[in-house]
Amino acid sequence: MTHVACARYGENGILGAMKPAILSIALLVGACAHGVVLDGLAAKVNDAVITVDDVGTAIGDMRRSGASIVKSDDFKVVYSNTVEFLIERRLILQLAAEKKVTFPEWVVDNRIRDIVREKFDGDMNKLNAMLTQIKTPLSEWRNMIRDDMIVTSMRQQFVDKYVVATPADMQREYRENRSLYRQEAKTTVSVILLKPAGDKKTPPVSTRGEEILARLDKGENFADLARKYSSDSHAKDGGKWKNVNPQEAFRPEIAKTIAALKVGEVSKLVNLDGWGFIVRKDFETGVKERSFAEAYDEVERNVKKRLGQEAYRQWIQRLRAAAFIKVYPFPEDK
User: Fold this and answer.
1) Fold of 185-286
2) Which are the contacts of 290, defined by CB distance < 8 A and separation ≥ 6?
3) Tens-place pLDDT, residues 94-106
């Protein structure tokens, strides 16, 4: 039985998801916090076992990555979902072993180098420090990475390569979900942000704002004034925010001000918590219905995703039907 140290998922994993009343799970978390191996069985898949410890580790891992199957306030649901996930993973890995699917060591090495570059700033020492903290040997972590690669490869080989989005499927998807393929309204604005005065020599925001508005009225360039006076993050670009949804990019007060402007119009000075905003609406597009041709790539992706999920479900059903699977009761119920 392979043990993945559950200390890594103590408070952030199971403890963050459980309800205090579940005493058995509280004991499980306490054991994890001390690096104790929990031998309780969660499931059997043919001759392989999945322990309660394996489930706790996986819950913590998926919660940290934001996986949807662990996003529930009901810990029993989270636990059950995770057991099913691990059963599917074990079935795929067992099939891969039967088919003698593996990866050369240099391929695994390349994947690890990619992970170190993307997640650890290219510093192997940072990876080793993390593994030390979670009490997981590098060899064990490496095996987990290899298993991830095998599972992905098996799904591509047995499911994804057979998924085809036919013209009829795509036309139906576009016809039945037109609202998904609309081009949302976008606005381009320019902003001058004035920060509060930091000393007595600096004029108040209201004074500086009115002076800038007066200079704009005389025809001075908005972008030049933004570069010189604005504290906004886009000041170096002349204060320009391109193709944004104001409701998402700005505070409600600013979004409301932008909505009231006509294209080319400059707002009055808006004072928010001591900061001053001057906004010009540069460009605006309304909601647009995209044609099938314009939305083609997105339609195809969505159809393939839906068909792929169904094909995967059927594949797993076939694997389950040919296997011996036993799921043990939830720890609280034992």
Assistant:
1) Chitinase A; domain 3 (3.10.50)
2) 181, 182, 183
3) 999 999 999 999 9
